[in-house]
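Standup notes
- DV: blocked on the single-chain target, sequence here:
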Amino acid sequence: MADIIAAKDRVRQLTAELERHNRLYYIEAQPEISDHEYDRLLRELGDLEAEFPELLSPNSPTQRVGGAPIPGFTQIAHPERMMSLDNSYSEEEVVEWYNRQKKVMGGDFETIIEPKVDGVAVAIRYEDGALKYAATRGDGRTGDDITQNVRTIRSLPLNLPADAPQTFEVRGEIFMPNDGFAKMNAERLEAGEAPFVNPRNATAGSLKQLDPKVAAQRPLDIICHGFGQLEGFALATQDEFRDLLKKAGLRGSDARWRAGNSDEILAAIRELDVRRHDLPYETDGAVVKVFSIAAQKQLGSTSKAPRWAMAFKFQAEQAQTKVLSIEIQIGRTGALTPVANLEPVFVSGSTVARATLHNEEEIRRKDIRVGDCVIIEKAGEIIPAVVEVKKELRTGDEVEFVMPTECPSCGTPVVRDPVQVAVRCPNYQCTEQVKRRLRHYAQRGAMDIQGLGDVMVDLIVDAGLAIDVADLYDLKFEDLIKLERQGQRSVEKLLDGIAASKQQPLWRMIFGFGILHVGSSSAQSLVGHFSSIDAIRAASLEDLEAVDDIGTIVAKSITDYFGNEQNIAMIERLRDAGLPFEAAPPEPTAGGGSAKFADTTWVITGTLSESREGIADTIRALGGKVTGSVSKNTTYLLAGEKAGSKMTKAEKLGVRVLSEEEFRTMLAEDDA
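- DV (later): unblocked, structure below
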């Protein structure tokens, strides 16, 4: 077709036709054409776009396979905050929530009950009918731009009908259907790749891929449940919002109940609890929303959550199974952790075959033996745990567990921790310890090294390329490319990630060392107090204990770590590699100052509208110090909802307590 005008018209027709068939297939489950015919239309559109590149749109159906890799995730500011929901775990709390709103409303009111999809919260914005962007919730104010990956979701329209709202920011949960997740894991196992642990983690990982082609291969889906900015439409009820979703070709929840009082809400929740494992996706609770949009506005929100909605979390489901064996896992600090291999049992929507037993004392306390029938549950619907032993079912053939006297990985005699209930392998070069240390160092909360996942760590250590984190900075392309299933792109990504980690702040590296008892908060306190690794290394026990977040046990652990010659040798190699050894000075503020909180010490507690770490970064950037516990040296306690014991202690010590609103006002006044 040589005529550009005719080609443009045909592209428009094909785009609309393919979007219609996507909607029929994925939303309405009423396909009209075969896969072969769909592919023929898609090829015709692709051929036209190749012949006339100026007609190619990022929202074309041909782009769902994923475009070129993106350099990284930028941030998108949400025009209206994305809030999380307050959770309740008992029916009494549901009734209390209803009665609170009932007082404001002046009587009973209508609600909608839907499954709480266990996925990743997103905001998707359409402007003039075209998908503009998609973003994660992030801290509620800003989120990651995941537009390229979201475009690959076939059930999501890239273009809305002509009569759709001019601006439509829809909110929902991206998830993996159970069937698709199971199929994907089977394919990964067949390819020799590690399976994903659960659908939610797999979904989150897919949306964080820098290469959209990877996301396009994952069975992602979406259910929409709310909206942010909406222009050109006035909605009165949740039913009108659902009708708008359907009209726009967006998928809403298939399971839905209407309730006009608290008894009806509880009846709907109970019915959903019975039906939830028949749903095609994971759900861990029910969402209750006020039916009237005007009433929602009347009820408003707290600093964290809307008052007009709440989430009821289902109780952890239990199941009975048998302990087939108990094996040992070795942690990054050498701790030996017993893990039960179980007779596979289906619980809370997935098959469980392993459960942590924590430590030898826990096994003794519960008297767990190999061959026992036990009751397990998923703590938080995720982590399997043994909660009870059915001792009355014992046959006499059960075998008591004996903690090994040698490390199962390296054969080194184990030692018992005199302080903690732990048995440790003291061999610094123990293969399993090395792997755990590297994974800890590379994790997102520490040095956030892109490309250094569990599988890559195993390959690097098994090949003898690294025994400590300093070895990572000596890795060479020619060595990595020889590793199993490694291509040029994955190796380059890893090396880029290692190089980028040199720009991380000092506290992340200290946390990444994996010093026993030193978490991210303690690492930040150390850097805030001493400002450099050399100063921390030179500090005495008394110096360390003077830091608000550091007690005697933690101080002893720090001095032990820096008194170890192997650790010091590794640290010096990190210095040679160009890692930061001093804290960066605070960045100047918009008003020109850099230390408006100089000589102040802060403690942050309770539920706030922004992550605590985000607020802590703001305080540190303005010269303040953030610690984890209230003391006489604390200047301010920033307290959100449910502040708890820290609030009580602050009031007792006479520490000034700030609400989030007062904190924001302080920032604004000082910036003026």
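- Follow-up: The longest helix spans residues 4-27.
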